[in-house]
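Input:
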Amino acid sequence: MNILYIHFHDLQDEQLYSRLLTLLAEYTPLVQALPPDAALADVSGSLRYFGTDATALAERIRARTGGLYGLRSTVGVAANPLLARMVAADGPPSAVRTLPDDIDTVTAFLAKKPTAALQGVGPATARTLSSYGLDSVGRIAAAPLGTLQRILGVTAGRHLHDVARGLDPTPVIPSAPPRSMSVEHHFTQDELDRNRQRAALLALTDRLGLRLRGESQVACALTLTIRYADRSTTTRTRKLHEPTAHTRSLTALAYDLHDRLALQRARVRTISLRAENLIAAERASRQLLFEPTDEKARRLEAAADRARDRFGTEAVQPAGAAAIHVA
Amino acid sequence: MRGFTHLHAVSGFSLRYGASHPEQLAERTAERGMDAVALTDRDTLGGAVRFAKAAGRAGVRPLFGVDLAVEAPPEVAGRTERRRTPARGGAFVDESAQRVIFLARDGARGWAELCRLVSAAHADTAGDRRPLLLWDALGGEHLTVLLGPTSDVGRALAAGRPDRAAQLLAPWRERYGDAALRIEVVCHGRSGTGSGSLRLAARALGFAADQRITPVLSNAVRYVDPGQGPVADVLDSARRLVPIDPRGERDCGERWLKPATDMARLAEQVAEAAGYRVNTARRLLEVTEETAAACRVDPEDDLGLGRVHFPEPGLVGAHRRTPERVLRSKCAAAMLLHRYDRDRHRWERLEDELRLIERLGYASYFLTVAQVVADTRELGIRVAARGSGAGSLVNHLLGIATADPVEHGLLMERFLSDRRTELPDIDIDVESARRLEVYRAILDRFGPERVATVSMPETYRVRHAVRDVGLALGLDPAEVDKLAKSFPHIRARDARAALQELPELRGIDPESYGPHMWDLVEALDALPRGIAMHPCGVLLSDATLLHRTPVVPTSGEGFPMSQFDKEDVEDLGLLKLDVLGVRMQSAMAHAVAEIERTTGRRIDLDDAAQVPPDDPKTFQLIKSSQTLGCFQTESPGQRDLIARLQPETFHDLVVDISLFRPGPVAANMVDPFIKSRHGRQAPRCPHPDLEPALRETYGVVVFHEQIIRILSVMTGCTPAFGDYTRRALSNADQVGRVRAWFAQEARRRGYEEEVVERTWEIVEAFGAYGFCKAHAVAFAVPSYQSAWLKAHHPAAFYAGLLTHDPGMYPKRLLLADARRRGVPILPLDVNASDAAYRIELVSDVEGGRPVHGIRLALCDVRGMSESEAARIVTGRPYSSLQDFASRARPSRPVAERLAQVGALDTFGRNRRDLLLHLAELHRSQRSSAQGQLTLGEVGAAHSAVAPVGLPDLDDAERLGAELGVLGMDASRHLMGDHRELLEELGVTSAKRLKDLPHGQVVLVAGAKGAVQTPPVRSGKRVIFTTLDDTTGLVDCAFFEDSHEACAHTVFHSWLLLVRGVVQRRGGGSGKALSVTGSAAWDLTELAELRREDGLSAVTERLTQADSPSGRAAGSRSLQLETGYALHPWADLQPPGESVKQSRKLWHQSPGSAG
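Output:
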């Protein structure tokens, strides 16, 4: 029980978050960031140095962050990240909760939990499982492995079989960067007009590209999520031809995703765009073209980026997005 | 100043387009000093008859026209592009076709041509294709064609392409010739060059001059008064199914019925803009008037208002002889057949009736109806006449009515007389499930050119108005849905009043929906929003039918349907026959068929030898008021009345049915009747002469026939005049005159002053409320037959009820009733169940003797299609799950639901294991090639599936699955789950309630059956609801003082706990029992509280005072013209979801049912 799952409440400031991560690093080098407001820490190596147990260390971290930044936090302490997460979520906020590392306690703890509390069990899987009466972790644990595999398939069944017993072999990996980045546009009224939707998309890809290039990252895929007046959503994901942060490519793909939905009477409330599978820009390959337009556009973009850097983001904007004020 | 005629004006019959009623159009035209106006609705002539009548009243000349979408002529048609199907939200409504106005001229020929065009435009509207007139279907005669801004010519002009406009005009000139063609000039003062702009108007005028086509000025009227633009916007939005775009183009507000001066000013503006002088404007107005003058169609002569058209006599058996002769000989033959030939009285009556029919010229009509009834019987469909037609001996002899009018004392005059101006009305009841077969038989007999069904405009009421306005304003769909459902089914114009007065709507803040919401909701009131097939009317006419009415195919069955509704059809003099589908007839037919299938015994319900009219067992059932499921006697009020009245004979049943009408209840005819019946009050009889008329109902006047007799006895008038006078009694203005006449005539015949006085009291008190005895007899027959079936063949009876669902209660209530009466309920089983409910002999019941049980039916499984059920039935028996999956090929959700409710239990005990096997079978079926059977496996497979270790459904989950899938608790009663809580609270069961004294305070609980707010005598709003627990039914009434606290709970919860007081009423035995509720709670919520926080939390909830919401209930009541008060919101379908239709119902699943 040396894994801590720390969740800070009401944290919105990205800079404060990175400071908190630095603070955690004072206790152990093994800190994995779970943006925007949580982190995992493996304190096995630090206990001897601090001369306490993990629970006391967790209390210290809570007290310290509370004192420094006035932040409330909840910490779960358990034998692996899965259980640490679950025990943290198992009660009112602002507390330290520990799950002792013995098999009976863990089994009893898990038995009553709903299926969806398990990591990796989304709403769809939970629905499938509960249609077979497997609506609590205890019932899943009681089901034979073969049955689970018949329901979910071999790999997923095996995984579920393990996690239902509280087994989670994943280690805490320090400093894993965020893997995706998303931007969103709310319309002030239900929007049916295709051109206005496209204008919003253009504003979004512009913003997304700027941020990606600012952080020297490239996206491998784009996800378009459209939320409608009845609160339902449509989501479409597609890979980019090559990993890129180039606004033009992002826009082309976003437009294409949008065109394929062919929305006519749908009452669109929100459009959000997420860049997926981010990797460092230097690892991206790029197809060179004989045609000079792409090259020119990139140079133009670089110039615009520099201008924005100096005069603010508003300084340069795509003309097509000017009609839309991006919140 | 000359007048002006609007040649282009629409009414609300232009669905979701016009914002005014056709009557208003005629009235405003007269008010604004114009002499004529055209009605040119979109795609319909449905408003024409009302319009013509209103125009007649207002003194303006009606012009008839229609606005049709017309296909572009082939030589100029553009390309059409195909668009991708949207992933969400649906496609835009396609309104791209050009619209052209056709005005009828040349009298009847013009009208016939209009009818033909409208019918042709609708000919191909299968699916949801919109009406479109193909170019080839255009005629060329008898019509004037207006090409306005929405025609292709107008659009080309708007696009600045007069050359293209000329090209598009050519095919029209070719068809109709220049003389019948008009260019419509419309100016709404819009900017730009689009429709309604001054520039387009000027261009159109110039174009007309260039092309030498006469222009006409119009205002393209959509609403009669200024300021109705926002309503038009809402209608546009409802038609296009998109919210109003605040940045987009809105209605300009100018499209109202402007007076002549305004139109003259517009003409000047347009002429000036087109570069002409003032005399051109004057000329424009003149030619508009000339066009109007040419479009002459006379409502009486050309539409055929006020004339009668029967099918040709040759079609109903009168080839060589006149229909009168044929009718006479048929009646005479039937007299012999019924062995009435020695009865002089009957011969005389027949002669009277026949002479009357001949005088009125209705012989063909009687032969036609007789023909339809005979054809229906031929098909083996149960058929019975209902209504006043049962009073005619001719109808009885022709086989139309079963009951003998002479025996029951029914009068012909109530049905047909010299003094009745309207067409006689014979309604026939047939089995609802086979109603369409009857329609087809009629179509086959008379041919599609003479037969059409009648339409019924569906008009905006509050719920739809809220929905459409909500959509138009772009409100949150979920919130709009909730808001709409919280209203009872009232008129849209009462929305604001309801919000103020109804306690269950107190939670709604009317201001939170924007400033115009309720204005718009109320503005939509009563506008048509759709046209549906009338549930029973069938038109029968001669071969000219299609020249007089436009006919469109109905959406489902493709029957020809006239665009005119019931009243219009009567005004047009078309013979309408009401063929009512009665579910109870289907249910009884099903029951009889089941009895024959299982026992081989064939029962004829109409045969007095097999179903004696004085069967003691049946009357015992009726007297115990356990008439749930019986025709006309199952409502809580009826059961209450029956318990007090204690019917002993068929005649008592007739009286019972007549008494349970709003009128008699309001006039308090019930109490004196019951008192006299049980001997606690002497029957009233002012004079011995009246004894024969009054004796049968203890001096209380129940039937119209009695009033007619009394009038006839006292004044010596003919029964025909008696009927005429009786009808005058319901009109407050005429009562005085009738009274004077009555007193004078009676005195002259020597009756004493006091007798006259007392008789008049009776006549006046009950005259307006009585019920036609012929109706009551016609109702009482199936009512008695169903009670007989329930008493003697309960299983078959319930099987019929459950299959055809005729009553007001949800099916689960019927099932509970069956269980209480000891009928075994057999679970759903794919190897035993049929598509419909069947009965089976069950041998192992307590008591030893085998009885019939009900086998649940596949048709009630949610999502089961008819073809799926048929496939399952034909494939029986199945040896294994795999066998079932491969041969019956059910869809996966249906197969899973079958497993959940235990229909597949023969293949394995654990239902969840079955689910997993089904999923795998489905997957493997999908991956293997379709249609190939794996031969080896079918025979070799084990009959039971191997267990896989999944947890089986527990009891609560099984019940949940039954409710979710079948909509009823089939294995046990759903209240069983709450027994513990109910015991702790000391809730009284329905059975024990019978032993409690009047006035005791009790708690009762149960699943909600039906909810009603009928009109009651006191003029208050009372909510009646029926609760059902494991032991029986409890009828609860909530009076107005308790509504504040409980109306919302009663309307919107499914399981109820009610605090109330026991009420006992009625005859000596005091059998009528109900509970007057003072508070109600949602039982599900209480059970939840108890499970989570124990009994004390429940106590907390029960003792918690509901905070009264400050606003005092406005107690308004409507004063009926007869002096009785009526609550304004009574007699409406109450808010909340209908108990009958919903499946989710009483059960809120604690987890997943699956």
